[in-house]
Amino acid sequence: MPVVQERPWSEAFQERADDFIDQGKIMGTNQHELPITEIVHRYPDQWVLVEETAWDSRGHPVSGIVRAASVQRDDLRAPLQALHQRSQVKTFIFYTGEQIPADLTVVL
Length: 108
Fold this sequence. Notes:
Layout: H1 9-20, E1 33-35, H2 36-42, E2 47-55, E3 61-70, H3 77-83, E4 91-95
Helix pairs in contact: 1-3
């Protein structure tokens, strides 16, 4: 039986991160800055990881670069961690599908 040598976690993680950040692309998205409204339009019913690039006067993001998108939120975990290997990056994740109706009360 062959001996399998385990690599340190950071080395293995870096290789996986490099798979996501490959020549300006992460998970098949492009590097163009887009307004949030356009991101919602281009990625319907998906979880989207956005690197923030511009904010309104209240500090809310108004545009950004889509770094990953998926119907499964967990798929964004590795790209999110890879992005935060760089310092000073600001990101957020949001769902572009149907929002909770204003007249709906959620009890936790």
